[in-house]
Amino acid sequence: MKTTLSHFMISVKNMEKSLNFYQNKLGLKVLYKTDEWSELSFDNNLELALKKDEEGVNLNCAGIGFQVDNCEEATKYYESVGVEITTRCQKKDNIILTQFKDPDGNVIWLSQKLQLSRCVA
Question: Which CATH number do you get for residue 63?
Answer without folding.
Answer: 3.10.180.10
